[in-house]
Automatic annotation (TrEMBL), chain A:
It holds the Pfam family Phosphonate-bd. Keywords: Signal. Belongs to the phosphate/phosphite/phosphonate binding protein family. The keyword Signal applies. Residues 1-21 form the signal peptide. InterPro entries: ABC_peri_PhnD-like, PhnD, Solute-binding_3/MltF_N. This is Selenate ABC transporter substrate-binding protein.
TrEMBL record, chain B:
Keywords: Cell membrane, Membrane, Transmembrane, Transmembrane helix, Transport. It is found in: Cell membrane. This is Phosphonate ABC transporter, permease protein PhnE. The keyword Ligase does not apply. It is a multi-pass membrane protein. SUPFAM superfamilies: MetI-like. GO terms for cellular component: plasma membrane. Residues 72-269, 333-514 form the ABC transmembrane type-1 domain. GO terms for molecular function: ABC-type phosphonate transporter activity. Pfam families: BPD_transp_1. Its main location: membrane.
Automatic annotation (TrEMBL), chain C:
It comes from Aquitalea aquatica. One of its GO terms (molecular function) is ATP binding. Residues 3-246 form the ABC transporter domain. This is ATP-binding cassette domain-containing protein. InterPro entries: AAA+_ATPase, ABC_transporter-like_ATP-bd, ABC_transporter-like_CS, MetN_ABC_transporter-like, P-loop_NTPase. It holds the Pfam family ABC_tran. Keywords: ATP-binding, Cell membrane, Membrane, Nucleotide-binding, Translocase, Transport. SMART domains: AAA (SM00382).
Length: 282, 522, 265
């Protein structure tokens, strides 16, 4: 029995010891608001750019769960993450994190309500008794802000809709509404526009129903105890991306950003208040 | 005499039982929003056909297949490492709690109070370990130690550790009692009693059960990807979310192959256990497999890190559990019960129908076809069926009903076919001889014998299904699981704690109830 | 002619069970089959019950060759042939009422048979059959709660309920005590006479056969040794029939059980 315990303890110790061995790598992750393969594709050129600018290895850690990104950042398992407004609020409530930059678009971000054309709804009120899909429960533009907006319209999703579901990602929401798995859904405006532009939305099946008022959304956030100089260099690298330079433009386009601008924690007070009001910060 | 019992004296109790069952079942339909009429609706058939057509052609791109191969190995390795951990955890727990090795049983000494308390405490721990479904352990551990295969291994280790401890203890208790006691009375220690008195005769059964659990662990490990714990499940989760049917069908095929492979290995090794050489070979092979698994998983673990203080902090967040959600929990429990009940009843009916051809009643071709179908239904775990059913019939408890019905049909159909094959054919043949049609000969000659066994199997599966139904919500199929997943996503740990306690209580209550029923039925 | 075998032989699994059997029974005739164990008595009865198809020769039952009939007609023929087995083929958990009712399955419509399974309504006739084997008080009991002798009598009651034109019985009283055996054989003979049914019974006990049956057929090694009226069956004939018989024990196959492991995970 003792030997068993000893073996177990040694094994655990060995794992933790190996894990804590530091390497000069910047570990970056992103909330999985789109398919993991899409996230990796989007990040590849930005990662190479950061490697060049910072002079250190940059590693992308794919994650399939919003909350896991927040936990990983709070427990220092990753150094930097692409967070949504709500996940940023969650992270800042559970530990020290520093928001560095955001896309210019993120200061006036919106969410879209879409509906299957077969439902024949003209307004949000027509969705009474239908099924409805949010994105991930932890998503700002896929859940929090649409919910907050619905609440302001006097709609409590759990009782107003027949069924409330969480698709997990924005593109999944569109696929679900298009296929009729759910009648309507809410998602991030930028993903919606990307899908519309690339022709991946069948206009005969899905149509836009409403748009939320603008709010602050995504940003790049680092863990609080990351070296301050490194933080500054990361910020600078992002801000240096110039839309007039074709190379930089390619990177920005993939991020669906016109350019990056500095951001601060106070920008997200509104999100926090909305989360509080929607009862998502219990 | 002639008119002493003109009427069936059991007619009212029977009628009442039937009515009670119907009365309980009827609200289940509305509770789970499961509408059988939609199955008959040509519109939904067309949707279904489109859905199934989406599964073809299968995705066979080289880089996708490479991913699949890698994740399949990870799944296998996680299950193997997880079972090893479960055995390390289960063996000492079994030793400490088995009644076969208590001093007062061995030597008639007065039970020591402290040791008794300790044993009860450990038994309580075992109940908690196995009462929380492995997928919930995985969900929690993904949050506590990060993504990847490590939480899968730990989840299997913890949940199956509790289960193995209980079964190991029972196996030790079922051995001939005199042997260990004789040694103890000669002055041997409890350890020596175990090694010399119980071990030799119990070893094949212990090994056999462990191998069987390994087979179950593979199925469990394959779906853990749904909560982010790596393996084929994670690929499947992504493909399902993106409605990529081709990838889904490839993964399902891989999944079925994996399950049947592990079933084959497990069957072979359990058969081989009859020989002495195998009882020596098998542990050696097992150790080799565990070493290989750990080697394969190691790079992933090194990256994910293991921070004990983070786990403690994470665990502390759960206290105190939220106390203001009784109605939500009540609703979740009712929904869970309705889902499992309806799913089991549907599975009973479908299983009975499929068992006929599977028992060889309609020729060889029908037999193998129906067996294949039953194996596919059984091979795919209910959680996976649920994630597919969510796509097919939409989110909510109806998908849960369908998933439980599909998986349980596979399990019950096979068992039903076995009872049919093992039942005495004489009564039915005699009736056919007397000119009864096939259906009537079956109803009067075979059904009375097999029906009670079928019912017993179905009740047993229902118990299992209640437990499964608590977690189906993780993929969006209603019940307590959905609330738990949401609470954890929103960092509402207090609420999550209450939900986990509710799951534990439900699973514990069901276990006690079914044990009580079985004791009464004798 | 109720039953006619024309040089019938039967092979099962390559071995000869019965060879060149010729035999006929007129409507309403009663005969006993005697002979050592393994002589082929049971097989002969099973041939008459259409369980087996003869390998050679032809068979006529109640005016038809069963193996030239369509399935539908065969079922009709079978519903007029009743067979009492050595061990009554009753499902363990079935209740006596259904076990007896099953005798008339061949004459009932499918629906009423299924309905009766839930809600038995033909109890008067069933009770009547049971009363004749002195088991009227067991109507609502389960078969597995009865003794071996009682189960056997339930089996007989089933055939009485069936009212067949041709009644076959394979050692029907082997499990009964001598007095009850006596009563039962008398009952079978009386029933057969009342309904003008043909009766062919195989018996272990030569005394019983001689006491109740006017015609005795001796079978040995798959052949008919003699077929004589009772008066001509001398002790010498009987001892020649049983000469050198050895006792054989039938082997019980072990009952397989589903392991509990299959139920989990």
């Amino acid at each position: 029995m003792k030997t068993l315990k000893l073996t177990l303890a040694t094994a655990l110790l060995a794992v933790s010891a190996l894990a804590s061995a530091e390497e000069a790598v910047l570990k970056v992750s992103a909330i999985p608001d789109e398919a993991p393969t899409e996230l990796q594709r989007k990040f590849a050129p930005l990662g190479q750019y950061l490697e060049k600018e910072l002079g250190m290895k940059v590693q992308f850690v794919p994650v399939t769960d919003y909350a896991a990104v927040v936990t990983a950042l709070n427990s220092d398992k990753i150094d930097m993450a692409w967070l949504g407004g709500f996940t940023f609020v969650q992270a800042s409530l559970h530990g020290k994190v520093v928001p560095l930059v955001q896309r210019e678009e993120d200061s006036k971000f919106t969410a879209k309500f879409i509906v299957n054309t077969a439902v024949g709804a003209k307004s949000l009120q027509d969705l009474k008794g239908k099924s409805f899909a949010f994105g991930s429960a932890s998503s700002t533009s896929g859940h929090l802000m649409p919910r907050y907006f619905l609440q302001k319209e006097g709609i409590k999703p759990e009782t107003f809709f027949k069924n409330v579901a969480y698709s997990g990602a924005h593109d999944a929401t569109v696929a679900w509404v298009a296929s009729g798995k759910v009648d309507a859904g809410a998602l991030n405006a930028s993903v919606w526009e990307k899908l519309v532009q690339s022709g991946k939305v069948d206009g005969s099946k899905v149509k836009l129903l409403a748009t939320t008022p603008p709010f602050y959304d995504y940003n790049w956030t680092v863990r609080g105890n990351l070296d301050k100089k490194l933080q500054a260099r990361i910020s600078a690298a992002f801000l240096k991306l110039d839309p007039k330079n074709p190379q930089d433009k390619a990177i920005l386009d993939l991020q669906r950003a016109s350019r990056f601008i500095p951001t601060k924690a106070d920008n997200y007070k509104g999100i926090e208040a909305a989360a509080e009001a929607a009862g998502l910060l219990k | 005499m002639l008119s002493s019992h003109p009427r069936d004296p059991a007619r009212w109790p029977r009628l009442l039982t039937l009515l009670l069952c119907l009365a309980l079942l009827a609200p289940s339909f509305s509770l789970t929003q499961f509408n059988p009429a939609t199955l008959a609706n040509p519109d939904s058939w067309r949707t279904m056909a489109g859905f199934v057509a989406g599964f073809f052609p299968m995705a066979l791109q080289a880089d996708f297949l490479r991913d699949v191969a890698r994740e399949t190995l990870t799944t296998l390795a996680s299950a193997t490492a997880g079972i090893a951990l479960a055995m390390l955890l289960g063996a000492p727990l079994a030793f400490a709690t088995s009644h076969a090795l208590q001093r007062h049983v061995l030597g008639g000494e007065r039970p020591a109070r402290l040791a008794g308390w300790l044993a009860s405490l450990l038994r309580g721990l075992m109940v908690i370990l196995r009462g929380i479904p492995e997928i919930v352990w995985a969900l929690l551990l993904v949050r506590a130690v990060g993504l990847g295969s490590l939480p899968a291994v730990l989840a299997i280790g913890l949940a199956y550790g509790g289960m193995l401890a209980k079964v190991y203890a029972e196996i030790l208790e079922s051995q001939t009692p005199g042997l260990a006691s004789a040694l103890y009375l000669q002055g041997a220690s409890r350890w020596q009693c175990l090694l010399y008195g119980l071990w030799p005769q119990a070893l094949p059964e212990l090994l056999s059960y462990s191998v069987y659990r390994w087979e179950c662990a593979i199925r469990a490990s394959a779906v853990m990807g749904f909560v982010g714990a790596g393996g084929v499940g994670q690929l499947l989760d992504t493909s399902l979310k993106m409605l990529n049917g081709g990838e889904v069908s490839t993964l399902l095929l891989v999944f079925l192959l994996l399950v049947s492979l592990s079933e084959g290995i497990s069957l072979l090794s359990r058969r081989a256990l009859a020989s002495v050489a195998a009882t020596r070979m098998l542990p050696a092979l097992g150790l080799l497999a565990v070493a290989a698994s750990v080697l394969w998983l190691w790079p992933g673990w090194r990256d994910s890190g293991f921070d004990t203080s983070a786990i403690v902090r994470f665990a502390r967040d759960f206290f105190p559990p939220a106390s203001d959600m009784l109605t939500e929990i009540g609703h979740g429990i009712v929904e869970t019960l309705a889902m499992s009940g309806l799913g089991s009843v549907l599975a009973f009916m479908a299983g009975a129908v499929l068992a006929m051809p599977a028992a060889g009643r309609f020729g060889t071709a029908a037999k193998w076809l129906s067996r294949l179908l039953l194996n596919v239904l059984r091979g795919v775990p209910d959680l996976l069926w649920a994630s597919i059913a969510v796509l097919a019939v939409g989110l909510g408890p109806a998908a849960g009903v369908l998933a439980l019905a599909l998986h349980t049909t596979g399990v019950l159909g096979r068992l039903f076919a076995e009872t049919l094959e093992n039942a005495d054919p004489e009564p039915e043949l005699a009736l056919q001889q007397a000119g009864a049609g096939r259906l009537l000969a079956f109803a009067y000659g075979q059904l009375p014998t097999v029906f009670s066994q079928w019912l017993a199997y179905t009740l047993y599966r229902w118990e299992n299904n209640i437990r499964s139904a608590t977690v189906l919500g993780i993929v969006g199929a209603g019940g307590l699981g959905q609330q738990l997943y949401l609470a954890l996503s929103l960092f509402q740990q207090h609420r999550a704690a209450s939900l986990i306690i509710a799951m534990l209580l439900l699973s514990w209550a069901v276990e006690q109830l079914s044990r009580y029923c079985r004791q009464r039925m004798g | 002619m109720s039953l006619r075998f024309d040089s019938v032989s039967l092979q099962l699994g390559g071995t000869d069970i019965l060879r060149d059997i010729s035999l006929s029974l007129a409507q309403g005739e009663q005969a006993a089959l005697i002979g050592p164990s393994g002589a082929g008595k049971t097989s002969l009865l099973l041939l008459a019950a259409t369980r087996y198809c003869p390998s050679h020769g032809s068979l006529n039952l109640l005016g038809d060759n069963p193996w030239h009939l369509s399935p539908r007609w065969l079922a009709g023929l079978r519903s007029r042939i009743g067979m009492i087995y050595q061990a009554a083929p009753l499902p363990a958990r079935q209740r006596v009422v259904h076990a007896v009712a099953a005798g008339r399955l061949g004459q009932m419509s499918g629906w009423s048979a299924l309905r009766q399974l839930l809600w038995p309504d033909d109890t008067a006739a069933i009770l009547d059959s049971l009363q004749r084997v002195a088991l009227a008080d067991k109507l609502w009991q389960r078969c597995d709660q009865l003794s071996g002798g009682q189960r056997q009598r339930v089996g007989i009651a089933r055939v009485l309920h069936q009212r067949p034109a041709l009644m076959l019985a394979d050692e029907p009283v082997a499990a009964l005590d001598p007095r009850l055996a006596d009563d039962t054989i008398r009952l079978l003979c009386e029933e057969a006479s009342t309904h003008q049914s043909t009766l062919l019974v195989s018996l272990h006990s030569v005394e019983l056969a001689l006491a109740y049956f006017p015609r005795i057929i001796g079978v040995r090694d798959g052949q008919i040794m003699f077929d004589l009226p009772r008066e001509q069956v001398h002790p010498g004939v009987v001892s020649a029939l049983y000469a050198g018989e050895r006792l054989r024990e039938p082997a019980e196959p072990p009952a397989p059980a589903a392991s509990r492991q299959d139920l989990r995970c």
